[in-house]
Amino acid sequence: MKRLVRIGTRGSALALWQAGWVKTRLESLWPDLQVDLVPITTSGDKIQDVPLAQAGGKRLFVKEIEEALLSGMVDLAVHSMKDLPTDLPEGLILSAVPEREDSRDVLITHHGATLSELPVGTRVGTSSLRRQSLLRHLHPGLRVEMLRGNVDTRLRKQREGVVDATVLALAGLKRLNLLPDAHHILDERVFLPAIGQGALGIETRGGDKISTLLSPLHHTDTAVAVSAERALLRRMGGNCRTPLAAKGTILNGTIYLDALIASPDGRQLIRSERSAPVGAAEEVGTALADTLLAQGGKEILEKLGQTS
Description:
Blueprint: E1 3-9, H1 13-29, E2 33-39, H2 43-46, H3 52-55, H4 63-71, E3 76-80, E4 92-96, E5 105-108, E6 123-125, H5 129-138, E7 143-145, H6 151-159, E8 165-169, H7 170-176, E9 183-185, E10 200-205, H8 210-214, H9 220-236, E11 244-251, E12 254-262, E13 269-277, H10 281-303
Parallel strand pairs: 1-2, 1-3, 6-7, 6-8
Antiparallel strand pairs: 3-10, 4-10, 5-8, 5-9, 11-12, 12-13
Helix pairs in contact: 9-10
């Protein structure tokens, strides 16, 4: 009889694709496993009429799934890493980080225009404060509007004219094969991505033997880069109410970390970078956070009612 493994996941098309990818990999690696998906509706999925920052933050997208994991209802959980808070509940650990998909953002318009080509007054929809700040900083003439919903919903609202354009994560569109012909991929050297964007995190109970089954899915370079990004987030005390971005890159045994913090109106943007040997990934994230805070990031956080 095959051993049953249950994966907790959100019920959106993208979340199911991501969990399905893990299911397929596990069943291929371990033929004695039967892997079932257990869709779980989270508070974040239910609340669609207010900005995420006001609703309670990204913890809303994982709370019910983590509760199911702790109770034994599921054996592991697959998350989009950018939705996973840095403080995991007691008893849960991050067991594997698979290889990252493309971390860039993509601008979706009716005609594939670039960001600089958008006319003044163009309505661009996004629920991300990071994207809102960068859009306002790079193109102050845009009308940035709050746009919640899953990938399908946001694409549909753009097609129907609720907004003229939207910015989405390229990874999700590629995974779902939904990238429209009219698109423009944003240069991440200018439009820095969210922390953990494009990466997945597989969460398990601490000490559970199932973590050994996940080791072939773990990608060391991705895990190191994401750990530096998350260390920066943790040190800055950032959350979904903070326009914060970071991207770690591994090259020849060195971690390069680029990060920024911005004011919500985009008028103030502080950006810096730092590098270190890969063994000091978390240290470089913490050090870069201290640099951003010293250069004015602390004042931005204070204005947002947050502390570092």
